[in-house]
Amino acid sequence: MFFRQLLNDESACASYLLGCKSRGQLAVVDPHVDLVDQYIALAEAQGVPIAAVFETHVQADHVSGLPDLVARTGATAYLPEGTGVDFDHHPLADAEIVNVGNTEFQALATPGHAQAHHAYLVTDHARADDPWMVLTGDALLVGDAGRPDLHAHGDHSVEEMARSLYRSLTERLLSLPDHLLLYPAHYAGSVCGRGLSGHPTSTIGFERRHNQALKHDSEEAFMEALIRDIPPPPERQAEIVATNRAETIVMARNGHKSAFAGLVLSGARPVYLDPVYDEELELAHVPQAADLAAVLDANPEAKAAPWDG
Amino acid sequence: VSAELVTPYPPGIPTVAPGEVYNDATLTYLQELVANGAFVEGATDPTLSQLRVTA
Fold it and tell me: Which residues in chain A land under pLDDT 50?
């Protein structure tokens, strides 16, 4: 088995390049946009292609390297079902298994930080048929549980997300054996948890004994502690999430420059609706329904914002 | 291919957005505006004697 943890100290993000050298396939988990060259260079140095890219969830604190990595390697993108992203991917159901050579990834639905969040249980079948490690994303970090507020909205209040996370931790992750290695998506310096360790690796057993967030004996106590002292949200959170979902927006081409600035801020990709210029009146008419229909047919993934016309 | 959002202001509707290709009509239009004293926003060089492009 091949395994490398790649860190980005600026956002305190941990990502992973791992897989099977003998069967010639590697996977990347939670890629950071600034590390794409490094994943590719490391894989090339091993002479093994990257065949799969996994996200534990749609990140809110940093831009993902997944679209770039998939475009450059032809790998399959795997995300938890229900993320709402606008690009081709394989949505993983709970307990679904993906084999990357001899290395098995099993999705473990662990909602709470995000509603659509999977941990990945990794088994190296070249050594044993028991899982060896778990990539916990933002559900369980080294020293804390993930924050419940970043993806909370509508029906999923911060309190509900915290309760959901409690069940994910106690019923899913803490039901795993103590010896499992634990690899999180963040470490000390990240806004995604409080009092995180600077050591981005642990075990299920060590966290079970020493993680402060796991010391509560009831869902209520856990929830109250988790929503207390939540760190400030990441800067540019909304734009990062929009970028990571790769949203496409239908926009009139003759809009104000502020709309274009909005594209830059949100990371959304525009498809333009061309204005109809009236030579006689010397003005542009409002966008036509037929033109909008044509643009939506050609770009089925695009979202159209309502406007007053 | 423009690397800038070049916008005569007023009215504030970009003539060329990043990623769009300049053609003779857009160049002539922008140069005429500048020659007549109009204000063009978003260009690194407001006189438009130089334009920032990606290719």
Answer: 307-309
